[in-house]
Amino acid sequence: MAKKKEQKQSVPSITAKIDRLVNQEDSSVKAYASVNIGGAFAVHGIRVMDSVKGIFISMPSNSYKKDGKMQYSDICHPITAEARNALIDKVIEAYELKLSEEQDMDDLSEDETADIQPSM
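Above: the chain's sequence. Below: its structure in token form.
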């Protein structure tokens, strides 16, 4: 039996957007994101998480109990390491951009209120 040559597959284009930020200090979830893969497939409900090891993403998953312990099973996920890395990079890039935009908006709001003089 002839061995199949392993072909390196290209990663389809991935775009990511942050659907909403989570502003609860006690939550490890920092944002929810969506991705569009190759203009043909969308994934919603990706969580941007923060832990002691840093920011990471968590794919949408189902939870269930097995032997009294909570288990999680991804609903969808990248198959190759290249696709996984591309998806992670795009989501984290979108998250950092969203945080930057929010900070810029906060700075603008502070500048506008600083220009307002109280009337007598």
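The first helix runs from residue 81 to 115.
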